[in-house]
Amino acid sequence: MGHGPGGVHSAVQREIEALLSGQAYGQLVSMECDINRQLAAGQGDPEYWEAVLPRLGIHAAKARLRDIKAQLLEERLAAEEEKLDVAAAMGWLDEAEEETDQHERRLGETVPFPRGAAKIVQEGDIPLSDGDNEQQQQEQQQ
Q1: CA–CA separation, 43 and 41 (whole Å)
Q2: 3-state SS assignment for residue 111
Q3: Which parts of the chain fold into alpha helices (H)?
Q4: Which residues of 117-141 are buried (b: 16+ CB within 10 A; e: fewer)?
Q5: Average of pLDDT values for 90-114?
Q6: At what angle do helices 10-20 and 46-83 cross, to 10 degrees?
Q7: Residue 85 main-chain phi, psi, to 5 deg
Q8: Please, what's the b/e burial string for 66-85 (b: 16 or more CB within 10 A of its CB; e: otherwise)?
Q9: CA–CA distance, 108 with 46 (Å, rounded to integer)
Q10: Cα separations (Å) of 130 from 89, 107, 133, 136, 137?
Q11: What average pLDDT is seen over the chain?
Q12: If DSSP codes are grouped into helix, strand and coil, which group holds residue 11?
């Protein structure tokens, strides 16, 4: 009675969960190495540690997923912060800064691609280029 999955007593299962929960991925990996070292050396209670190892793997996987999720959220937040002009949104810019900010925004705006330009490039016509290819373009037009 009181045995859970794998024949481990429920009190031992609670102890294992308490041992593993809240641990970071690196801590769990280190713990796994220590347990394997103890088992190889014949130290400690092998039945206990054999019951810990499967749960440790599950907790390590969950901890790694938490780390990945946190990293992705940080990256997404940083990308959103780059898009957001906090000072302007909060009204912290004075008039001179606001004019400079608006000018910089205009400089960074994208220019719409002219209609038909993609068709010209797709049909093999000469695309716009810098001065290096001007002579080639003139030769091709003749």
Answers
A1: 5
A2: coil
A3: 10-20, 25-41, 46-83, 86-89, 95-108, 117-122, 134-141
A4: eeeeeeeeeeeeeeeeeeeeeeeee
A5: 59
A6: 40
A7: -95, 90
A8: eeeeeeeeeeeeeeeeeeee
A9: 65
A10: 39, 20, 6, 11, 11
A11: 76
A12: helix
Q: Who contacts 60 (Cβ-Cβ below 8 Å, separation ≥6)?
A: 25, 28, 29, 32
How does DSSP classify residue 9? B
Alpha carbons within 13 A on the beta-carbon side of 97: 7
Average pLDDT over residues 118-124: 47
Place of tokens 């004019």: 99
pLDDT over 90 percentage in the chain: 45
74-90 tens-digit pLDDT:
999 988 877 777 666 76
Residue 60 to residue 66: CA distance in whole angstroms: 10
Give the C-alpha separation, 122 to 119, whole Å. Answer: 5
Asked if residue 65 has pLDDT above 90, the reply is yes
CB-side neighbour CA atoms (13 Å) of 102: 6
